[in-house]
Amino acid sequence: MRILVVCGAGASSTFVAQRVRRAAQQQGLGYTAFAGTEQSLPIDLDAADVVLIGPHLGHALTRIEKDAAYRGTTVVLLPDDIFQDLDGTRTLALVHGAVDGSGGIPSAAPSSADVSTKGTS
What PANTHER family has UniProt attached to this entry (predicted)? Predict the structure, then answer.
């Protein structure tokens, strides 16, 4: 599975992509995850099976979903607290939920990283 993480300038999406890639690798999954920007999205969509949209791009969700639908690409709007998912497991669960239809895990559910870093952020 090819996972594209999109944010405004590419900085935060790079961190999320690295974490998802590491979580997938630790689970023995041959997934790739890469970062993109809102501007590079029309080109990047062709290389993605799933697109994770940064929470600050919620205003563009309808447009992105429309563009992705032509390619059969799944789109997930990430919750506001996604950057607290330091090990990428919660984000990976959101990907699995979107792809298999279960909806992933609720945004309020802590990952192991959230629990271990509680009170440090």
Answer: PTS SYSTEM N,N'-DIACETYLCHITOBIOSE-SPECIFIC EIIB COMPONENT
